[in-house]
Amino acid sequence: MLKSTPLIAAAITLMTAPAFAQDWTGFYGGAQIGFANVDASPGGDDDGVIGGIVGGYDYDLGNNWVIGAGLDYDFADITIGTTDVEEIFRLKARGGYKVGNGLIYGTTGYAWADTNNAGDDNGYFIGAGYEHLVSANFSVGGEVLYHEFDNFGSTGSDLEATTVQIRGTFRF
């Protein structure tokens, strides 16, 4: 029979104990990059790279739930016919559940998109994501969002966009 020694017990404790506190409360800022598919109805569709900066504030409720608000600004170069989608801005609310050092969350909010020749317009988005604390001050994650803009720029076309992005954020 194998005897437990203090050295073995200490090693097991070190392997199972979290290396940092799992408190999500605070401000964050970072960058994201990914893929977007934009569909104009009528008008066609296209896809391409999208990326930009993120920032916000999360509040850890202390019972495995986290709520927060944030801003995203993304650049894009997605062409539908003769129109280029050039930038997207989001004002978001999110709420999620902590799983270990991770956060599974849902998000929704206001979206604004700008194009080269059809103007700009307001819409909304809804989505979900996962973010993982790799240290007390840095997290990585991924997010999928569905956007909708009805009668974009009074052109008669409805725009729908789906984005898939990865991000890294510094938390302070």
TrEMBL record:
Signal peptide interval? 1-21
Listed A to Z, the keywords are: Signal
Report the coiled-coil segments.
Answer: none
Cited InterPro entries? Beta-barrel_OMP, OMP/PagP_B-barrel
Pfam families reported in the protein's UniProt record: OMP_b-brl
Q: What residues does the Outer membrane protein beta-barrel domain cover? A: 8-172
Its recorded name reads: Outer membrane protein beta-barrel domain-containing protein
**Where does this protein come from, organism-wise?**
Roseovarius litorisediminis
Q: What is the organism lineage in this UniProt record?
A: Bacteria, Pseudomonadati, Pseudomonadota, Alphaproteobacteria, Rhodobacterales
